[in-house]
Amino acid sequence: MMMVDTEVRQSPIHGLGVFLKEPVKAGTLLWRFDPRVDRVYAEDEIAALPPHMQEYLRIYSTWHEPTGLYVLCGDNGRYVNHSETPNSISAAPCFGDDHAAVDLPAGTEMTSDYRLICDRVRQDGMEFTLPSALTGGGVFPGLPAGSRINGGAHHQPR
């Protein structure tokens, strides 16, 4: 659950991103898993869903290897984009707290290092298969369905 006030809007990094509506100081708690808002899914739960929902959950959730669970942020947290130089620090994959790495002014896009928050990214690297809805006439027109890009179609891990 986001612990600071944010909004989702177009991102210069990728698609949609999470932007701070207020300044935060370095060390401020930005996100924390909260089962009242965030949801976990086992692989068999996802497999029982229609294909379009399976694809959605695998894009917008993060994989936690030790528990065998996908974690879906129930709020704007699912739109945090990847950065090699993130402005947040994650204590652990999926269930760890995220804190501001530096002072961040209002309007700053929040970023995270997906390799620290998602075991799948750590295992498989930073290449993602684009959902069919984003290719063809969608966000990436001209790319065939199943195209792969580097850096993170909001997998989004988180």
Strands, count: 14
Largest sheet: 3 strands, antiparallel
Overall 3D shape: globular
Given this structure, which CATH class is correct?
Answer: Mainly Beta
Radius of gyration: 15 Å
In helices, the fraction of residues equals 10-25%
Q: Detail the poorly predicted runs.
A: 126-158
- Which strand-content bin applies to the residues? 25-35%
| Strand ordering within the main sheet | 3-9-8
Q: H/E order of the elements? A: EEEEHHEEEEEEHHEEEE
Mean of the pLDDT scores? Answer: 76
The CATH architecture assignment turns out to be: Beta Complex
- Figure out the total of helices: 4
Report on this model:
By secondary structure, the protein is an alpha+beta fold. It has one domain (6-150): SET domain (Beta-clip-like), CATH 2.170.270.10. It has four helices and 14 strands. The protein has a three-stranded antiparallel β-sheet with strand order 3-9-8, with no helix packed on it. A three-stranded antiparallel β-sheet has the order 4-6-5. Strands 1-2 form a two-stranded antiparallel ribbon. It starts with 5 loop residues before the first strand and ends in an 8-residue tail after the last strand.
